[in-house]
Each structure stands twice: as structure tokens, then as C-alpha cells.
């Protein structure tokens, strides 16, 4: 009869396998958390870009209709679409238009932010 105490080789291998599996799960969880944090930061930056472009479009005194695209920081692309969606009857010889503005910010093919606004402004003939 053996009176020695200790772990057998099989018990040690099983314990290491369980610890390895637990470590792998922990790494997956941490990796997903970091990835989610990076994506959230990119979306926040894209939303700030979209806000900035929309505010810029809202301050232009006369709004031409059309679509414009450009490159922003950190591989973001932006697109502004301006549409005249209605006009008011002329008053004192001036035409007032009701405009719809859409601002989209993308990174590659992925839309990260989209904002829309409406505004009355002098109609561009």
C-alpha cells in the first residue's frame, strides 16, 4: 500500500486542460470587450464628423441642391445630400425653399453615422 500523497500525471493533465480552456474563454471575452470599445470609439468619432458636416450645411446662407463627398480624418468618408423638398409662395420677390439635408459618414463600406436635418433658406434659382 502506498502512503505517498500527490497528484498523478493524469490528474495534472486534466487540471492543465481545464485551466487552458478557462484562459482561452477569458481571452475571447477580453478581446471582444476591447474590439467593442474600439468600434464604439469609431462610431463616436463618425457621429462627431456627421454633426460637424450637418452644422456646416445648416449655416450656408443659400443652399444648392446636389451631393458632395469628401475624405475626413482616420479613413472616414463623408457624403452630404441636399434636396429642395418644397417652396413657399414668393414674398416680396424672394423665394424660400424647404431643404432636406442628409449627412452620412462611412469607414470603408460601413455606415457609421447618418444624420438628417431640415431647413428653410432662400431658394437657389
UniProtKB/TrEMBL annotation:
The chain crosses the membrane at residues 12-34. InterPro entries: N_methyl_site, Pilin-like. It holds the Pfam family N_methyl. It comes from the Bacteria. Keywords: Membrane, Transmembrane, Transmembrane helix. This is Prepilin-type N-terminal cleavage/methylation domain-containing protein. It comes from Gluconacetobacter tumulisoli.
